[in-house]
Amino acid sequence: MHQLTLAEIARGLADKKFSSEELTKVLLARIAQLDPQLNSFISLTEDLALTQAKAADARRANGESGALLGAPIAHKDLFCTQGIRTSCGSKMLDNFKAPYDATVVAKLAAAGAVTLGKTNMDEFAMGSANESSYYGAVKNPWNLEYVPGGSSGGSAAAVAARLLPAATGTDTGGSIRQPAALTNLTGLKPTYGRVSRWGMIAYASSLDQGGPLARTAEDCAILLQGMAGFDPNDSTSIDEPVPDYSASLNGSLQGLRIGVPKEYFSAGLDPRIADLIHNSVKELEKLGAVIKEISLPNMQHAIPAYYVIAPAEASSNLSRFDGVRFGYRCENPVNLIDLYKRSRGEGFGPEVQRRIMVGAYALSAGYYDAYYLKAQKIRRLIKNDFMAAFNEVDIILGPTTPNPAWKLGAKNSDPVAAYLEDVYTITANLAGLPGLSMPAGFVDGLPVGVQLLAPYFQEGRLLNVAHQYQLNTDWHTRTPQGF
Ligand code: GLN
Fold first, then answer.
1. 213-268 pLDDT, tens per residue?
2. What is the mean pLDDT of the chain?
3. 210-214 and 186-189 as β-strands: parallel, antiparallel, unpaired?
4. Res 222: pLDDT
5. Domain tally for the chain?
6. Active site includes 189?
7. Which residues sit with their C-beta closer than 6 Å to ligand 1?
8. Is residue 130 domain-resident?
9. C-beta of residue 155 within 8 angstroms of C-beta of residue 119
């Protein structure tokens, strides 16, 4: 049963082959048995899950239907869940029970999804390895000595290990697509403003976007359908109608223009990954796509710009965690300054502290123009590059990451080495564009992802291309040994 995709679960529930309650019990038992190896969950919500599963079964018995009605999922632990710990992977929020549900959580619950738990993540979503969590590192089910990617590494590891069919994630600079690539999943970062950020604990507000992680594009379509839509509570949410994503899957790729940026195949890319990406290009060509080399000339400036903008926004967003308004409070403060200093010093881990310091520095008087303003200008140039490219092509294709997963701890002493892993993903966040990563093969037994980018609000096009690719390849069906 644990091998079923969301689409298969929906059919099984509709055909009364099993109930949501039965399925939920099977998956909860599987999590209890296997998750100790992975550490992919921070909290399990067994009681809530069983209540929601029974309610979904009752709704089906009453004639209701829907692809998510009774479907088991989990939420990255930065989506607020009412009455349930929402830790953001941090000691700072270790005992924070959110007083309300995030819009994404509420929408999925209303659609009948069953929440099995809250998944592990890099602290405050900062990282590419899921090693900065207060709750310990997450292991990659493809090799337990390797990282699963981050920051949505718990969601990715859990779905890849077939502990559940799909989960939510968030992507500020690649945190859905990069762990999807490293664990052989399909992950989609929607257009900025497509999915509500209300109740999603902020890292860098102008870049953060929630989205689905699943095994197939078909399942990403189902989960995205439940997440997307205008939300008056989020001032950056965009009031655009949500198309039927599942209906977009079957379009023909005949004549689809795919742009392959030459800058994506520069020195930093593992040549074995380059080969796999070229194979996926050939596969899409067989399906009728037309390939064109394009250029994104400002790509080289993306990482420096991102690592100014994201920490700057983080330093502002995280100022509310001061032991007074929100978060951990130190023992026996001698005065207010001591309370602030020790609460933040003890509550935040080293990576978060590093980002706050970088961000506060970039925003400080005298440096703002030199760093933050400059980075915003680069951001515009990157967006312009994409706009020019999308005049010529329908989709941009390249690797998701320059390397496959690395050994736990291997990049710990060199934060910049980890930052460089985001080189292909962060441009989409800087420009606000939708992006998808899907399985494209293996290097030394570790999964590799191919990334697709599309113009604003063309999530359906990404899912269409990915689905057609998955009908003709079987990388996404491979299961890690032992799971
Ligand atoms: N790895 C990037 C960072 O650490 C992206 C993280 C994310 O997308 N949340 O900032």
1. 999 999 999 999 999 999 999 999 999 999 999 999 999 999 999 999 999 998 78
2. 97
3. antiparallel
4. 98
5. 1
6. no
7. 125-128, 151, 171-175, 203, 310, 422
8. yes
9. yes
Handedness of CA 69, 70, 73, 79 (dihedral sign): positive
Catalytic residue among 19, 20, 40, 76: 76
Query: Does 418 score more than 90 pLDDT?
Result: no
Catalytic residue (choose from 40, 151, 248, 315): 151
Domain CATH code at residue 168? 3.90.1300.10
Probe ligand 1: pick from 78, 122, 424, max atoms within 8 Å of CB? 122
Q: Whose CA is nearest to atom 10 of ligand 1?
A: 126
Instruction: Choose the residue to mutate in 128, 132, 351, 426 for probing ligand 1, maximizing ligand atoms within 8 Å of C-beta.
Output: 128
Report yes or no on 302 lying in a domain: no
Indicate whether 225 belongs to any domain.
yes
> What does the DSSP assignment read for 391-424?
TT-SEEEEES-SS---BTTTTTT-HHHHHGGGTT
pLDDT, one tens digit per residue, over 157-213 is 999 999 999 999 999 999 999 999 999 999 999 999 999 999 999 999 999 999 999
Q: Which tokens hold the place of 482? A: 């032992």
Q: Which domain holds residue 73?
A: 6-256
In-domain check, residue 297: no
Output the residue whose Cα is nearest ligand 1's atom 5. 173
pTM of the model: 0.98
- Per-residue confidence (pLDDT) for residue 365, from 0 to 100: 85
* Residue 145: CB atoms within 10 Å: 12
What is the distance in A from the centroid of ligand 1 to the CA of 112?
Answer: 30
